[in-house]
Amino acid sequence: MRKLTFAVAVLASLGGAAVATSASAAPGAPMGVAAPETITTVGMHDRMERRMMRRHMERKMMRRHMERRMMHRHMMQRHMHRM
Prior knowledge:
65% helix, mainly alpha, flat, signal
């Protein structure tokens, strides 16, 4: 039974490789691997993107600050109940 399952798996994988056409993910020629140079993007942000990133970081830092503060308050409250 184990050999039969292995044989079916091998045939299925070989059959899938034989059916692959030009629409597959693998390029047909080695030159197809390199990306064209015209698609490169500039790493600069405009004013709105910088503002959005700054606000995002501020919110992230505020959330971290509030989580640490609440954790500290919780630990202090547990400590006070022990006494």
